Automatic annotation (TrEMBL), chain A:
Belongs to the binding-protein-dependent transport system permease family. The lineage of its organism: Bacteria, Pseudomonadati, Pseudomonadota, Alphaproteobacteria, Rhodobacterales. Residues 96-321 form the ABC transmembrane type-1 domain. The keyword Ribosomal protein does not apply. This is ABC transporter permease subunit. InterPro entries: BPD_transp_1_N, MetI-like, MetI-like_sf. It comes from Pseudogemmobacter lacusdianii. Gene3D superfamilies: MetI-like. Its main location: membrane.
From TrEMBL, chain B:
InterPro entries: Peptide/Ni-bd (IPR030678), SBP_5 (IPR039424), SBP_5_dom (IPR000914). It holds the Pfam family SBP_bac_5. Residues 1-22 form the signal peptide. It is found in: Periplasm. Transmembrane segments: none annotated. It comes from the Bacteria. This is ABC transporter substrate-binding protein. Keywords: Signal. Residues 67-446 form the Solute-binding protein family domain. Belongs to the bacterial solute-binding protein 5 family. CDD domains: PBP2_DppA_like. It comes from Pseudogemmobacter lacusdianii.
From TrEMBL, chain C:
Belongs to the binding-protein-dependent transport system permease family. It is a multi-pass membrane protein. The lineage of its organism: Bacteria, Pseudomonadati, Pseudomonadota, Alphaproteobacteria, Rhodobacterales. The chain crosses the membrane at residues 31-52, 101-126, 146-171, 260-282. It comes from Pseudogemmobacter lacusdianii. This is ABC transporter permease subunit.
């Protein structure tokens, strides 16, 4: 097992280096000059421009800049934002919990609904439940979520007034960030109503973000179940007169869960992409919106380190999925 | 651990935390502040969160005007030659305190000298207190060349010496970048080794004390009971950061905030009709324009430019792009600014006459580019839509228009490149209410070079000479006459098609009273109150 | 419509396989509905200038933000109302169909061709070529697709062409991986060895012998990518990085309409429905294709 993990980790090293090169070089060839953006309509004199570029280190050769970047990276320094002048890592950590909270809620919703629906649809294959749920799943899978989010806001916040429009918690509550997760912090603050306020702010964005993963998980669960139920050992169990409930519970479900878990793990990348749109629509102070803003402001250090952190994160989660998969299924491990 | 349950009045949610006396005012701000030290930044959103609530300056803009009045300086004297300004400082002004800092002395001349010098000299220990920090406003207002020295005469007297006379100087130092910060606080932070907190945990002399900031979400302030001016009427001030205009409006309607900036033009009529809301409006201190490249044929011919100007239907743009919430512009400066020349008559919209004029000048089958900027700005809600309308109008006089756009930073740079192909849509929002801040920056010969902002590359000696005279003239009446004359030349030469001065709207809850709109576009809350 | 049988040049067998394919495809009611909608969409796009009641960029300045016809304030000449500068929404939606189909076709073609070539090279040559190529694909896949596409568009400059290129680059590794996997399986088959012994060159082996036998999964992936491309380009348009106004691309229309979500619901609603319906139709079709082409599912 240790060798398996080690080989997986070693495999990641070149990928990670590739990611640093991409993050660095992409940002370096972005057109548009951060110095000019800072100056706005006013413009900046050539001398002052040179002075500022030098101060920011953009006058050195690109290769030198890359090694500078890599060197500082290994010391845990991701550079300072050009806009706020503050360390990128600090800004990332300040916003990251908001995205994680949203992402976790979305994946929980998607799993809790998606798996049972998928299982039911597989068991009752061809029934109206199967047809309706799978059609709905396909609609969800085809949904432009930015539009879906706007519709939900118009309906639930605008017309019905049930949910707040944006933000993470009502402004009447104020307590320090201990964990950065609003649900936990609001519980810990002990203030009455704080938790339900945080929850009501979280619900619409989570639902929007959960839409596509939910559809994928439901469809994947159904097809995994169908495949397993066609396998010989399930047929044998059934032929031996084992009750249907046990056949499904013990044999089918357990084996079908392996690909489903992989699917759930692989939704992390999908969630990050979805977070960009969801956070933009709901003014959710997280990583996705931060990246969009930084791209449009040409905040080089933020875009490059943000790309790196997000890709690194996706990589680590994929590794974890791989490892879990290896644990469950020894055949892969010994390959 | 501090628990400050902040109360939002009239909230729809069940209120369980009650603190009857505390009045909390919630402002749905548009952008996150970049930091809380006003000097390194340039955006209005940052100043609304830092310079205005937390700090003061030697001179201040009188509320609701662009006139300068005493701030931390009680009075001042200017020498005959206009080079020496001697400021008498206000006594007994208290600094804020926080967990890390308790002031031992009042505001004095040391703070003033410190605040200016850290921006002026690159080797000042506080110049680079955060790596890579720059003082863009200080530089762009030309302070390094303008200011010769800032000296302390005694604890409550400061003398600033200039290199050349500059009529707008007193207005310059009322701007946010010139906010006065505490030298003692800086020293405390330096001793603690946390210099960067100057930008994170600000200490000022202003009407509100900083409490906390959750990135991209909420800023909290509390009233400064010891404020030297009139103390605020509200107890707590909260900025709820909400970048999207539609969302801001929904929050306002839901009672989640009391006041918001920059409503979408499309929503104005709906806001007017809502009895729970009220709407303040004022002509903004801005101008949107289309700048021809006056160095390239046939746009080097003033008559061609005039003819094109006559082909574009201004009212249609005001109606469709600004939804009627703007005033068609005839001059390069807005009507709220002193010296605005109202006697000038705008070129009439007349496609037939335009066609004829183009023919007379021998211009046939003209095709040109119009640059439409990719972002929304206070002076131009939708450049793309404007360009499309111009395209259609110009096609009626036989001019083919191609619309081009670039990413914003690139747009700004490329539009200033010599030999640029096409006319550029852009605009300007005033910094300090002085006409020089529009005319010199945007239209003088000096700024028609790389690094300037004269995107018409228009260099008219007569016009520039008038501006130079006005800059060294102290008498407002004389300056007014000079600027009025300059506007006549501008209209005659038509380096721009002047589009519009957009109206600024501030929607707020009907319960709010005492809000004063600033012609400079600032949002300040020391005078607001909320009815129960 | 699919030539899974180029290798067997016998026309009869080909006809039979097509018939079998159609049999399984038509078993799936959803797929048929999807196909019908898709064909409709193609027709609408092809004959847009005939069907559309107005020029999609014509601004009726006396008809700004007119609601749909069934609303009291609606006008019969603008069935689905007009936008902020008085353009007919129905006409814009009709012309928008051209954009969506065009985007889908271009993106899938670029990604498919690029992915196939890269995958063939990796799978056929193996060794370090394979290692290097697959690592690069891993790196691309490590970034969330939309984020990567956004950065690419920021580099290339906002616009429809660049958005399509960016999306194609982001999708291409999926095709490369699929091709490589299929090639590696096929390489072990006897017919490949036979062809090699018969003296077929590398090029012939790759494109004539192996490729036709790997097409089924690629076709399924292509339909999936087609719908994702429509969605992602709309998302880019929505974020201001895709097709630029005044082109009536659906996502761009939504972005322009965002300021009206409270005051003019029709400007927001219809482009979204258009996106949803076309993406759904393609996905339904894709499901049918997969069922018809995938022998494993056919069995169960």
């Amino acid at each position: 097992m240790a060798r398996f993990i080690l080989s997986k980790l070693l495999y990641l090293v070149p990928t990670f280096l590739g990611i640093t090169i991409i993050a660095f070089s992409f940002v370096r060839i972005l057109p548009g000059d951060p110095v000019l953006l800072m100056a706005g309509e006013r413009g900046v004199s050539p001398e002052r421009h040179a002075e500022l570029s030098a101060q920011l280190g953009y006058d050195k050769s690109v290769v030198l800049q890359y090694f500078d970047f890599l060197g500082r990276l290994f010391q845990g320094d991701l550079g300072n934002s050009l806009v706020t002048k503050k360390p990128v890592l600090g800004e990332f950590m300040a916003l990251f919990p908001a995205t994680v909270e949203l992402g976790l809620c979305a994946i929980i919703i998607a799993t809790l609904i998606g798996v049972p629906v998928g299982v039911m649809a597989a068991i009752k294959r061809g029934s109206w439940f199967d047809q309706i749920s799978m059609t709905t799943a396909l609609v969800g899978f085809s949904m432009p979520i930015f539009w879906w989010g706007l519709l939900l806001i118009i309906f639930f916040s605008g017309i019905l007034g049930w949910t707040p429009v944006s933000g993470r918690i009502s402004l009447m509550y104020y307590f320090p960030d201990t964990t950065g997760f609003m649900l936990i912090d609001s519980l810990m603050s002990g203030q009455k109503g704080a938790f339900s306020s945080a929850l009501s702010h979280l619900i619409l964005p989570s639902v929007v973000l959960a839409t596509i993963p939910l559809a994928v998980i439901a469809r994947q669960t159904r097809s995994a179940m169908l495949e397993v139920m066609g396998e010989d050992y399930v047929r044998t169990a059934r032929a031996k007169g084992m009750p249907e409930r046990r056949v499904i519970g013990i044999h089918a479900l357990r084996n079908a869960m392996i690909p489903v878990i992989t699917t759930i793990g692989l939704q992390v990348g999908v969630l990050m992409a979805g977070a960009i749109l969801t956070e933009t629509i709901f003014s959710w102070p997280g990583i996705g919106k931060w990246m969009i803003d930084s791209i449009s402001r040409r905040d080089y250090p933020v875009v490059q380190s943000g790309l790196l952190l997000i890709a690194g994160l996706v990589m680590v989660v994929n590794l974890l999925v791989d490892l879990t998969y290896g644990l469950i299924n020894p055949r892969i491990r010994n390959k | 651990m501090k628990h400050l349950p902040v109360l939002a009045t009239a909230m729809t949610l069940a209120m369980t935390v009650t603190m009857a006396e505390a009045k909390t005012f919630v402002y749905c701000s548009e952008a996150s502040p970049e930091g809380f030290d006003p000097a390194p930044y340039t955006s209005g959103g940052t100043f609304d969160a830092s310079a205005h609530p937390i700090y003061n300056r030697l001179t201040e803009f009188k509320k609701g005007t662009t006139e300068v009045e005493p701030g931390l300086a009680e009075s001042w004297e200017v020498s005959e030659d206009g080079l020496e300004y001697t400021f008498k400082l206000r006594q007994g002004v208290k600094w804020h305190s926080n967990e890390k800092f308790t002031p031992t002395r009042d505001f004095n001349a040391d703070d003033v000298v410190f605040s200016y010098e850290r921006q002026a000299s690159a080797d000042h220990p506080w110049n680079q207190y955060v790596a890579g920090i720059t003082y863009e406003y200080f530089n762009s207002m030309d302070m390094p060349n303008l200011v010769k020295s800032v000296e302390k005469i005694d604890d409550y007297t400061v003398k600033i010496t200039l290199n050349s006379p500059e009529a707008p100087f007193l207005a310059n130092i009322a701007m946010p970048f010139a906010s006065i910060i505490s030298k003692e606080y800086a020293e405390t932070l330096e001793a603690a080794g946390t210099k960067e907190d100057l930008n994170n945990l600000p200490i000022g002399t202003g009407p509100f004390k900083f409490v906390a900031y959750q990135k991209d979400a909420v800023i909290r302030y509390t009233k400064n009971a010891e404020y030297w001016g009139t103390a605020p009427l509200i107890d707590d001030l909260v900025f709820a950061i909400t970048p999207d205009a539609a969302v801001r409006l929904q929050k306002l309607k839901a009672g989640e905030c009391h006041l918001m900036p920059y409503p979408a033009p499309a929503d104005i009529d709906g806001i007017r009709a809502d009895s729970n809301l009220k709407l303040d409006e004022q002509a903004g201190l801005n101008v949107g324009y289309l700048a021809y490249n006056t160095t390239i044929a046939p746009f080097d011919n003033a008559k061609v430019r005039k003819a094109l100007n006559m082909a574009i239907n201004k009212q249609a743009i005001v109606d469709a792009v600004f939804q009627g919430h703007a005033e068609g512009a005839k001059n390069p400066i807005p009507p709220t600014m002193w010296s605005y020349n109202d006697a000038i008559v705008d070129d009439a919209y007349d496609p037939e006459a335009s066609k004829k004029m183009l023919e007379e000048e021998g211009v046939k089958d003209l095709s040109m580019k119009i640059w439409a900027m990719p972002v929304q700005r206070p002076y131009m809600p939708n450049a793309r839509r404007t360009a499309e309308m111009m395209q259609e109008d110009l096609s009626k006089v036989g001019v083919k228009v191609e619309i081009v756009s670039y990413e914003w930073g690139e747009y700004l740079a490329k539009s200033m490149e010599a030999g640029r192909d096409g006319a550029v849509i852009l605009g300007w929002t005033g910094d300090n209410g002085d006409p020089d801040n529009f005319l010199s920056v945007l239209l003088s010969c000096d700024s028609a070079v790389e690094g300037g902002a004269n995107r018409a590359f228009w260099c008219n000696e007569e016009f520039s000479a008038l501006l130079k005279d006005a800059k060294v003239t102290a008498d407002p009446a004389e300056r007014t006459a000079l600027y009025e004359q300059a506007q006549v030349i501008f209209k005659d030469q038509a380096p721009w098609y002047t589009i519009a001065h957009s109206t600024q709207y501030v929607p707020m809850s009907a319960k709010v009273s005492g809000f004063v709109m600033s012609p400079l576009g600032d949002f300040t809350f020391e005078t607001v109150d909320i009815a129960e | 419509m699919t030539d899974t049988t180029v290798k067997l040049s016998d026309a009869a067998i080909r006809r039979k396989m097509l018939a079998e394919f159609w049999f399984y495809f038509s078993q799936n009611r959803g797929a048929v509905v999807g196909l019908v909608v898709f064909v409709l969409l193609v027709l609408i796009a092809a004959f847009a200038s005939l069907i559309a009641p107005h020029d999609p960029t014509m601004q009726y300045r006396d008809a700004l933000l007119v609601p749909p016809v069934w609303d009291e304030a609606g006008r019969s000449s603008f069935l689905l109302g007009t936008d902020a500068v008085g353009r007919d929404i129905l006409s814009r939606l009709i012309f928008g169909a051209q954009y969506s189909l065009f985007i889908g076709i271009v993106v899938v073609s670029i990604a498919l061709v690029g992915g196939i070539i890269i995958g063939l090279l990796a799978g056929f040559f193996g060794g370090w070529v394979d290692t290097v190529i697959m690592r690069v694909m891993d790196v691309i896949l490590a970034f969330p697709s939309l984020l990567l596409a956004l950065v690419l568009v920021a580099i290339l400059g906002p616009g429809l062409t660049n958005a399509m290129i960016a999306i194609a680059i982001v999708y291409q590794p999926h095709f490369a991986r699929l091709t490589r996997a299929a090639v590696m399986t096929e390489m072990k088959r006897e017919y490949v060895t036979a062809a090699r012994v018969a003296g077929a060159g590398n090029f012939r082996l790759m494109f004539k012998t192996i490729l036709p036998n790997c097409l089924a999964p690629l076709i399924v992936q292509a339909t999936l990518s087609f719908s994702s491309a429509v969605l992602d380009s709309a998302a880019l348009g929505f974020l201001g990085m895709g097709a630029q106004p005044p082109s009536p691309e659906w996502g761009t229309m939504l972005a322009e309409a965002r300021e009206f979500i409270l005051s003019a619901w029709w400007v927001v609603t219809f482009p979204g429905i258009a996106i949803l319906v076309s993406v759904l139709a393609i996905n339904l079709m894709g499901d049918g294709l997969r069922d018809a082409l995938d022998p494993k599912l056919k069995r169960s």
